[in-house]
Amino acid sequence: MNKCLLLIVQLFLIGHFKVSGIHRFGYSNYEQRNWRREHISCGGEMQSPIRIDSFKAIPLRMPALEMIRFHDYLPGPLDLTNNGHSVTLSLPKLPEDDPYQKYIPYVFGARLHNEYVLEGLHFHWGDTNNQGSEHIFNDIRFPIEMHIIYRNRKYDTVGDALNYTDGLTVLGFFFQISEKENKGLSNIVRNLKHVYSVNTRYMLNETFTLASLLPSSDDMERFYTYKGSLTTPPCSEAVTWILFPDPLPISVYQMNKFRNLASDTNQTPIVKNYRKLQKIGSRRVFVRKMKEKIRYHKTNETISYDKWDWMMRPKRSKV
User: Fold this and answer.
1) Rounded to whole angstroms, how far apart are CA atoms 229 and 49?
2) Which of 78, 204, 274, 279 has its CA 20 to 30 A from that of 191?
3) Position 282 pLDDT exceeds 90
4) Structural element, H or E, at residue 30
């Protein structure tokens, strides 16, 4: 893969680019079929997104996903960009010796074998409330899916990371329509008006924590994970996906703010910016196996079945 193409992909992922030179591609069925003609990886056997079925996923004991510095304010200025395909939020590119580097969130654990540092995030959505997410979970396609992108720390750039199967990890979150607004999303939604037009970017004059966008830590204990790819050209098979099944809320008002963004100079709205499902093939989807819990009626204490089993065993009588 040549360096020019890798640079284009990196800039698309993190939204940190000169907006006049964006790599263009479309999401119609015809255009998606053309992806593999222009990018060999798009016709690979480990492509994303896929259908996730909780009954077919393989339960596996694995560590929790450790999320470090999620409660620290993100170093700014944060860059919000409409690249014609999606809206992206990216962090400033800081030199390694910059003191603000220590505030950039990173993750490890689960089935990851290294630390992965935050690069940025973006969204995929539809024009109706029953379509938009790229992954389908238990036959449900949600109206919008958020992808948070992390780069394996052992690679210097996203472009470098795309050459390796362990290059990136992407955390995927679903949203479902709610009567109430998602206060965490308001940091992004209220600034979408500044990037209504295609190829526009806006530097936020405020910052927030990544944790404010996410569910509570208890709701992130269970997740699904599999090996896959980017869901946009060049579809590099360099991604470990980690998907959280419980949807977050988003109001109709907030959803419409995404749907109003323009994809071209004719003000055509960005909608249906999701890739069609890919074949899972011989891959396996794993779900983190959790210890089931019961509620102990006398103390209202939550205990594990393992502890309960030990408590309930008949005690040997002393002779």
Assistant:
1) 8
2) 274
3) yes
4) helix 29-38
Nearest alpha-carbon partner for 129 in 278, 254, 268, 267 = 254
Residue 23 pLDDT: 57
- Give CA separation, 27 vs 35, 51, 121, in Å: 10, 18, 19
Gap between the Cα atoms of 159 and 167, Å rounded: 9
Identify whether 90 is part of a domain. Answer: yes
Query: Any idea which residues carry the catalytic annotation?
Result: 85, 155
Domain count, the chain: 1
Q: What is the pLDDT of residues 197-210, one digit of tens each?
A: 999 999 999 999 99
CA separation, residue 288 to residues 43, 109, 135 (Å): 29, 11, 18
Residue 302 lies in a domain: no
Residue 102 maps to which CATH number? 3.10.200.10
What the block records as the tokens of 15 is: 């939204």
pLDDT value, residue 98: 84
